[in-house]
Amino acid sequence: MSSSPADRIQSVQAAVYRVPTATGGRERPESDGTLEWDHTDMLVVRVSTGGETGLGYSYTSAGALDVLRDTLWSVIGDADPLDSERLYWAMARAVRNIGWSGVSASAISAVDIAVHDLKSRLLGVSLTQLLGGAHDGVPAYGSGGFTDYTDGELIEQLGSWAADGLSAVKIKVGTDPADDPRRVAVARDAIGPYVDLFVDANGAYTRKQALALADPFLERGVSWFEEPVSSDDREGLRMLRDRLPAPIRVAAGEYAYTLADFRDLLVDGCVDVLQADATRCGISGFTAAAALADAWGLPLSAHTAPGLHASVGAGCRAVTNVEYFHDHVRIESAFFDGVPALRHGDLLPDRAAPGHGLTLREADVEPYLVDGLSTALGTKGHA
Description:
Mean pLDDT: 95
CATH class of the largest domain: Alpha Beta
Helix content: 25-40%
Strand content: 15-25%
Strand order of the largest sheet: 6-7-8-9-10-11-12-13
Largest sheet: 8 strands, parallel, barrel
Number of helices: 13
Low-confidence stretches: 377-383
Shape: globular
Number of strands: 19
Radius of gyration: 20 Å
Number of domains: 2
Structural class: alpha/beta
Oligomer: single chain
Distance between the termini: 31 Å
CATH superfamily of the largest domain: Enolase-like C-terminal domain
CATH topology of the largest domain: TIM Barrel
């Protein structure tokens, strides 16, 4: 394909939507070991050219729209969608003075995902095939078990995932370390002996707390300990990886925004399982993380956003599972048509559909709209 003006990005739309956590009469916020939240903000970006539109999104702050408006808008305009790598790094350079990690990274990621989707559609292939087509599908693990849940809510959620055929489930820990062994026991009873049990502390524990909890967790068959300490404490992650009893694996990487973040976790020997989130590092960063994981001989786990990561994860050899995160499953099912099917515990992207196969339900998402932008052929304004 040539790079004539007709082949370049001709229009961009971006909008932020806010979705409350409350559903089914459940009005209180959700919580994990270090945070409480009552809503999720979602940035949706669409880029178009050649009669095709690519869609990208990230779970982020509404401030990501300001990064698009003030810093990235001019970089995106007139870019060739086939040059996805060039655009990704151009956006990274553009945010140098405001910082890449965090909100800027999520804005870059939404654009990068949209560009990869557009690129796939222009070439007439699925996103999975564009990225290498390593797998037909990827195993999913149920993720939720928030620390504010009652025992009854925990049992209902985890039991439903086990009944649906998921081979693993994950609960949040860390709000009350003294009560966590009891909650882990409740979780084990809910799923039975044959489903893997993961825990995620979101960095809430001290090193000593994490070590002290390892044995009671192991007694209940916990095999995955995510962020037992903060990912900023790479020395602590390395120490725990060395000292936690087998088969407990240390997982981290969800807050890796740049390639250096993934490199440092691997070079310092911090993880048994590397995580990556394309809504934070982009598809360009995710595929680079997959290559690094391959080089270190470690598995890569896709963090949240299962509607997207089914396609991305199936494209990369290193990916061994996708997080079927409660909040995002609910949002993606409400926002998009074409969400990948969950069959026998695996997420299966539609290889017959171009791109990632997701399309936005315009009428359904309108009530959640916070703000938006649009541009056509170099003009800029509010949507």
